[in-house]
Amino acid sequence: MRLSAKGEYAIRAMLDLALQYEKGLIPIQEIAERQGIPQRYLEQVLLLLKRAGFLTSKRGSTGGYQLVRPPAEITVGAVLRTIEGSLEREDATRRGRGVSLDHSRDLAELWEQVSAAVSEVIDRVTFDDLRQRVSARRSAARPMYHI
Predict the structure, then answer these.
(1) Which residues of 41-59 are buried (b: 16+ CB within 10 A; e: fewer)?
(2) Are residues 81 and 49 in contact, defined by beta-carbon separation less than 8 angstroms?
(3) 10 Å Cβ neighbour count for 62?
(4) What one-character-per-residue DSSP string does the chain give?
(5) In this model, does residue 134 exceed pLDDT 80?
(6) Residue 45's pLDDT is what?
(7) Is 147 among the domain residues?
(8) Is residue 124 part of a domain?
(9) Residue 60 falls inside a structural domain
């Protein structure tokens, strides 16, 4: 599975919004700055996610973006498929130039298994799962006692 910059930015932006979920509308400038994503490019990504029903937005100085549903109800797979389209690997038999037909079929079966395993993971992991991972990592990085 190849992940484009647009797909990675979508995941990072959605995670950012999941981390800020209780805060309401988050200005695009804040997301872009925290995630190191060019704002003009982020606008395009967020528009796609809004059209797909993941986000809502409000314009103006008090505006921003927020998740339409709780992070626990949005999977990484759903977002990636919205941005990337099908996550299926290109037909492996076409890549088998110079390889016997039997080997080409074996490789195609392998890539199908890999694709199924990746899909199983990304369809199981929600943005709440990712949010909890980030929170746990941040908590572990903090010292227990302040001197």
Answers:
(1) ebeebbeebeeeebbeeee
(2) no
(3) 9
(4) ----HHHHHHHHHHHHHHHTGGG--B-HHHHHHHHT--HHHHHHHHHHHHHTTSEEEE-STT-EEEESS-GGG-BHHHHHHHHH---PPP-GGGG-TTS-HHHHHHHHHHHHHHHHHHHHHHHH-BHHHHHHHHHHHHHHHS-SS--
(5) yes
(6) 97
(7) no
(8) yes
(9) yes
Cα(85)–Cα(24) distance, integer angstroms: 29
* pLDDT for the residue numbered 92: 43
The pLDDT tens digits of the residues spanning 66-91 come to 999 999 999 999 999 999 987 765 54
Total number of domains constituting the chain: 1
**Tokens for 86?**
């099908």
Q: Which domain holds residue 75?
A: 5-141
Classify residue 135: in a domain, yes or no: yes
pLDDT tens per residue across span 94-120: 555 555 566 788 888 998 999 999 999
Give me the CATH number covering residue 32.
1.10.10.10
